[in-house]
Specification:
binds UDP-4-deoxy-4-formamido-beta-L-arabinopyranose, 11 helices, binds nicotinamide-adenine-dinucleotide, alpha/beta, about 325 residues, 14 strands
Length: about 325
Amino acid sequence: MSILVTGGAGYIGSHTCLELLNAGHDVVVIDNLDNSKEESLNRVQQLTHKKLKFYHNDLLDVTAVRRIFKENRINSVIHFAGLKAVGESNQIPLRYYHNNITATLILCAVMSEFNVFNLVFSSSATVYGDPARVPVTEDFPFGPTNPYGRTKYMIELILRDLYASNPLWNIVLLRYFNPVGAHTSGRIGEDPNGIPNNLFPYITQVAVGKLESLSVFGNNYPTHDGTGVRDYIHVVDLAIGHLKALQKLKENPGVVAYNLGTGRGYSVLDVIHTFEKASGIQIPYKIVDRRPGDAASCYADPGKAKQELGWSAAKGLHDMCADSWRWQSDNPDGYED
Ligand code: NAD
Ligand code: WQD
């Protein structure tokens, strides 16, 4: 029996494929390579000395999705595929709604046709929006502030309706906080197109000399040093969380949501300083205006995942910085190198 990984060539998907192969699972990937390169999967196979099966297809192509289920004995699906850039989602909301939501509808319909009812879905802390207080527990009210976040929120609702209609479904919703870092080999990591939107890839590109200086978005937030506070989580810890979620599916949990974060909040300046220590490189930065839509502080209460999945993050901020830097310095142009 195989695990189908949608979006498996992407940042979190590739790290999860590696952990799945290492744990002895058979892995089938579907990815349209819209935001990734097949090279990530080549490297996953080199690192694990194991093979996976790759379908270069779009989830919106129902015929292709059906073919995958016909050709493989799929037992469970980990659904990463989606568009994820917050700013872009404000400009082209229809593309986000279509790609993220319609693709999920197609995936779930084909899963039902083939009697596959085990699903792990990549949700996001973005469903909470700007939380009224921290740490954030899973029962917090939803308040996504952009179309991307609303696709995650809507998909969560759709998946709950699906379970309500048919209790054969087992669905784990994983709400990631801020995934960063890279595999310790330095062979796979985050490879954003163009100028990065997110803090970590921006810092590593400044460090490697591709960008001049970091803009820190605001230093007048009500946080310990005035800059925004987030719960950065190492992508390998996150990947392992998916293996724990697959275990959970075996208990027939219905629909259940978990925060995957460390439970610790770090400011932008904390990250800059830790990165400088880990890399030995000075990061030039300037303080600029707040970025519209940013929360002051967002970090998880990861207690439910610890209690019910037996999962907690093992890696700290220094590991995240050191591993991001190893990936970026070994691969200055990402998978193009
Ligand atoms: P990513 O862009 O690196 O990976 C997503 C993959 O899905 C890409 O390889 C892309 O080519 C593929 N894809 C997109 N639409 C597709 C389609 N219609 N058919 C087939 N493949 C398609 O992103 P990531 O950081 O690895 O994120 C994975 C998932 O986790 C996404 O759903 C994202 O929304 C969610 N998430 C990410 C973060 C984050 O900060 N990275 C945080 C919370 C949640
Ligand atoms: C982190 C902190 C910024 C860039 C985003 C999505 C969220 C989720 C994770 C998918 C903030 C500050 C950033 C820069 C800066 N993705 N910053 N200068 O916004 O917390 O979360 O990724 O689900 O939905 O919104 O992450 O890395 O962009 O920002 O000062 O150049 O760094 O203001 O405080 P964010 P981020």
